[in-house]
Write a structure and sequence with these properties.
Length: 93
């Protein structure tokens, strides 16, 4: 037979939450401790998915900015206005 470790711990709940837990304990004819233990067993998977304080406070990692190689760079656009003016001056000659 396994022995159970009965360590005492003070837990603090908002008054309305504690009253709700007490009502549920009364409804199920269970102790407050049993209700909280069952709630933990049911919710622990969801709680483990929550980010820790360290995860929330640390800034997200950003990839380093790597300058583009000159061979990959886009060529400068040809000024359209200057090209049109040059062709019209050629026509007048």
């Amino acid at each position: 037979m396994a022995t159970t470790d009965h360590r005492k711990q003070s837990l603090y709940f908002p008054e309305d939450m504690l009253e709700e837990i007490q009502r549920e304990a009364t409804r199920q004819d269970r102790s407050l401790s049993w209700i909280v233990q069952q709630a933990w067993k049911v919710a622990r998977g969801d709680i483990r998915k929550m980010p820790s304080v360290n995860d929330v406070l640390s800034p997200p990692l950003r990839p380093a900015v790597v300058p583009m190689a000159p061979s990959v760079a886009t060529p400068a656009p040809v000024p359209v206005v200057a090209a049109a003016a040059a062709s019209s001056s050629d026509e007048s000659k």
